Amino acid sequence: MAAEQHSALRDKSFTMRLLTALAGGGTWQTVAGLISELWVLEANASTALVLGIETPDRFTGVCLRNRLDGTLHPTDVRINVTCSALLTSEHLLEAVATTGLLGGLHIRLRLWPELLSALVLQFPEATEQSSDAQHRVLETITYKLLSLVTDRPLTIPTPELLEAMAEYSAGAGHEINNPLASIIGQTQVLLKSESSLDRRQSLETIGAQAWRIRDMIGNSMLFARPPVLQPSIFNLIHPVQEALEALEDVAEESGVEFRLSSISEKILITADRAQVSRLLTELIRNSLEAIRGAGRPGIVAIHISESIQGLAELAIVDDGPGLVTDVARRNAFNPFYSGRSAGRGLGFGLCLAWRIVRLHRGLIFLQEGIESGTACHLALPLNPEGP
What we know:
Elements: H1 2-24, H2 28-43, E1 47-55, E2 58-66, E3 72-79, H3 89-97, E4 107-112, E5 117-122, H4 132-147, H5 159-193, H6 197-224, E6 231-235, H7 237-246, H8 248-254, E7 256-262, E8 268-272, H9 273-294, E9 298-308, E10 311-318, H10 326-331, H11 348-359, E11 363-368, E12 374-381
Parallel strand pairs: 7-9
Antiparallel strand pairs: 1-2, 1-5, 2-3, 4-5, 6-8, 9-10, 10-12, 11-12
Helix pairs in contact: 1-2, 2-4, 5-6, 6-11, 7-9, 9-11
């Protein structure tokens, strides 16, 4: 009877902790512990390991094991493996095996690159004791909990928020474009017959601002409804070099130095070259503008590597002021937020980058420098259409 009462109290305590986290989030350690409990208690997993990227070359997590006597044994875990392992189950499982916490048969792995997280489960029998339908429900709860973590060491996009904003952008962009086209058209008509210099100047100002709005709407629509991928094989280093050349004049005027390094002269990738070029240009420009905004010289360093076979990693590091406030960190990927001064446009750079990376089945996140600056890390499959 005492054991049954203890179990009931534990279940009640767990339910309350779970509901509290779903209502307001929690720290990574708390959330990871709850998720591991959820899968052991509700799905009868013998071991549940929740992993998240702590640094670009290290994962941290919580492992919960259900012992033969029914007691639960939690273990804090750190695994030294590059972040791109999150894009391939094989390499992540190899890294997990080195811990000795899981191994053998009946392993189930779920990857969430957009949340920089993974779930590794082991079941005691070949036929799992819970249904696929129950697993889908538990995975939904797990995803929600991971998206609510409040103390991530890295800044990541919020997929649900960005998807909602994309839907809004698509509808709003379409509705705004129609009257905007009329304004531009009527302005051009009036200019043809206007002789007053002052009125011509006013009409030109109206037209210029209308075109500026149209450019913003174009970025919004690209974020909301990007074109279908047109994959081709190319050397990833080439679009990086082209992006640097396109921004070279602005960099020189601002006293910003570009530094490019790569582990190889040729890293072939199958991807949409135009979209990857846009991705790299936006990220490099973002770092350049961060330094320009600080009003001092600086450095933007780009490093390209192939740390795991079949996966390319890029790091774009600047020594600008960094994400100096919680508001900036929370809204870094928000398309309607910009850390720049008023009147310099919306912050579409990072959200466009997120959209392109997601289309290519990659991952992206920001890391703050120790003293200042920001590093943008991304990983892309060299062949996203492959097995």
